[in-house]
Amino acid sequence: MSIGIKLKSFRIHIYFNLFRKIFSQKKMTRQRREVKYFATSENNPPSGIEQAVVFISHILIILTFPLSIFLSLIVLSEYQRAVIFRCGRLRRGGARGPGLVFRIPCVDFCVKVDLRTTSYHVPAQEILTKDHVTISLDAAVYYRIFDPLLAVIQVENVHLATSMLAQATLRNVAGQKHVLELMSEKDAVSMAMAALLKSATAPWGVLVERVEIKDVRLPLQLQRAMAAEAEAIREAKAKVVSAEGELSASKSLKAASDVIAANPVALQLRYLQTLSLISGDQNKNIIFPFPVNLIRQLMMGKCAEPSQGSSSKKRASSNLKDELEINREVDEALEEAYRVLDCKIVKLSQES
C-alpha cells in the first residue's frame, strides 16, 4: 500500500514539474512576443465558431483513426521550423520543430521556414558614381532567418524582399563613392552595405551575415585611359631610376678619373687589364700594342719648323735627352707587347 502511495506521489511530482515547465515556456514566449515588431492575436480567446470547428475536427480525427494520423503529423528537419495558424490565428507557443508536429487538417495552416544560410547573387547594376562615371557592379549577399514568426508575418516573401533591398542598397552605397574607392576599398563598401541591410531586414527576422563585392566593370574608354596613366607612371619611374643610375655612375667615373690622374701607373694597369679582357679564350684576334707617346713624338716632329735657327740648336741637347727617354719607354712598351704577343701565340698553338 505504501509503495502505491509513493508511486502516485512521484507521478504527481513529475506532472507538476512538467506543467510548470510548459507554463514557464508559454510565459517566456508571451514576453518575447511583446518585444516583436507586430501584434498577434495568439493570446486572444477563440470565438464560439472556432471552438465548434476545432471540436468537430477532433471528433473526425478520432473516427477516422488511424488514417487521419498520416494527415495530422508533419516531420520537420533540424534546420526547419513550422509556423501554424489555426483558423487564421497564430497558435500559442511560437514556431514548432524540429521533429513531429501535430496539426488538425483543414483547420491548421502550416508554413515551413528554412533557417539555413541563403546566398543571393545581386545582378550587375548600372551605377553612376560620385565622379560621374557609369560602372557595372555586382555582389553576393549571405543571409539567414533567425525568427520564423517575423519572416512569415511581417513580409509576404522574405527572400524576394531581401533581394530587392540588396539591389537598392548596392546602388545607393556605390553611388556615393568614387571609382577608385570602389576598386581599392571593396571591403569598406561591403561592410557599409552589410550594416544597412542588417538594420533594414531585422524587422523581417532576417540576419545579413556578409556582403561581398564580386566585380567592378569599367567602361572601355576609362580602362584605356587608366592603362595609359599607369603606363606613364611606370615610364616616369623608369626614367627616375635611370637618371639616378647615371648620376651614381658619373660619380664613380669621376672618382676613378681622379685616381688615374693622380697616379699614371694606374692608367697603364687599366691598359693591361683591357688587353687581357680582349684576348679571351674565344677571341681569335691578334693585338699589337703601340705606344701613344711615339705617335705624339712623330706628330710633334712633323709640325716643328726647320727655321727655328739657333734656338733649336740650343735646345738640341735637351731634346736629345727627351728622345732618349722616350725611346727607352718605347722599347719597354714594345718588349712588354712582344712578351704578351708571344704568350698569346703559344696559347693559340697549344689549342690548335
From TrEMBL:
Stated family: Belongs to the band 7/mec-2 family.
Pfam families noted in UniProt: Band_7
Residue intervals of the Band domain: 71-230
Taxonomic placement: Eukaryota, Metazoa, Ecdysozoa, Arthropoda, Hexapoda
Gene (UniProt): BND7A
Species per Swiss-Prot/TrEMBL record: Bactrocera dorsalis (Oriental fruit fly)
Keyword Amino-acid biosynthesis carried by entry: no
Keyword Lipid metabolism appears in the UniProt entry: no
GO cellular component, one term: cytoplasmic side of plasma membrane
Transmembrane segments: 52-76
Keywords: Membrane, Transmembrane, Transmembrane helix
Entry protein name: Band 7 protein AGAP004871
InterPro entries given in the database record: Band-7_stomatin-like, Band_7, Band_7/SPFH_dom_sf, Stomatin_HflK_fam
